Amino acid sequence: MTSAGETPDPLDRALDDPWAVWLGRRARTPLHLPDYRRAAVLVALTRERDPRVLLTVRSADLPTHRGQISFPGGSLEAAETPVQAALREAEEEVGLDPRTVHVLGELDDVFTPVGFHVTPVLARVPAEPRLTLTAEVAQIITPTLGELRGLDVIHETRTLPGGQQVPLYRFPWRGHDIWGMTARVLHDLLQHGP
Fold this sequence. Notes:
4 helices; alpha+beta; hydrolase; CoAse; 194 residues; three-stranded antiparallel beta sheet; Nucleoside Triphosphate Pyrophosphohydrolase; 20% helix
């Protein structure tokens, strides 16, 4: 999106954005988990040749997931769509102005062992978005997709109650340990994206 007087960014046009093309060519895999709590996260990629992905380090003062790395996001409010929730949460957590976000669409649903059914929302944001820390966020990190692709990713398998095996990934990046649902979504982007 551009403001008055700015030169339009060619990546604002969905047909020129390789991520929009990729997303439009793939079949989305939804989940149907009625007993899980619905949530959404914003997978925000900067408008750059080697996009950076917006991640947060959760505050040590939070009651759950202290210090973990995550996408901005949270639970859906009543009658809220995943896109609306992802944009609201990103604004609440890091001050990302939703008017600067170009939503491309929804990625495959994922779940967490603690009972969340999460819809990741893929979007493009300015190369230098205006961000602010809130009490929920200790730090904002923005690794490039190229950096993440170059890492020696740790791959493990966990057996859930009931015997189902699920893949787990860990991205060790600059002293940070990116794992869990965040790592699963990143792994999908890096393995299957443009």
